[in-house]
Write a structure and sequence with these properties.
By secondary structure, the chain is mostly helical. Helices cover 70% and strands 0% of the residues. Helix 1 runs antiparallel to helix 2.
């Protein structure tokens, strides 16, 4: 890949779960235009969890340590 993963596995799982919950709440509870906006924003959270790379974290210089890169954490 062209990027270095900067999210640990526990945070990736949390982002996917929270993002899917936000998509559901946005579409089912809010509905309409605002629900669509919330769901589209949450799709970015799910994507960062699936890919393991967060552009905002990269901007501030966040990196994984060696133990996390090897999957030991």
């Amino acid at each position: 890949m062209f990027y270095v993963k900067n999210l640990p596995n526990w945070e990736r799982a949390l982002r996917v779960i929270a993002g899917l919950a936000a998509i559901y709440l946005g579409l089912a509870v809010l509905g309409g235009m605002w629900g669509t906006v919330v769901a589209a924003s949450a799709a970015g959270i799910v994507g960062s969890g699936l890919f393991g790379f967060c552009p905002m974290c990269a901007l501030v210089g966040r990196r994984l340590d060696n133990a996390a890169k090897q999957g030991k954490i």
